[in-house]
Amino acid sequence: MQYYTLVYHLVDDYIARRAQYRDEHLQLAQEAHRRHELLLGGAYSDPANQALLVWRVSVRSVIEDFVAEDPYVKNGLVTKWEIRPWTVVIGQEKFEA
Prior knowledge:
Strand content: 25-35%
Oligomer: single chain
Largest sheet: 4 strands, antiparallel
CATH superfamily: Dimeric alpha+beta barrel
């Protein structure tokens, strides 16, 4: 299992536009969290111009599939995104599968 970060770069009016997609986005994220794939996620504030999601998965394609299904991405709230492997030194959690 490898840690990854997913960074979303958000449109300027993200806060105003997200409401109609928020429930579907959160459901998708909660499903990934229940599977112990998505560990943490949320938007930065002041300004809310990016979001960070921390993953622990065996293959990067799990995250790519999430991005492809995310209504924020599909509806243009995300201007670009990037997935990066993350080497965690302190705080690695053990999960029962």
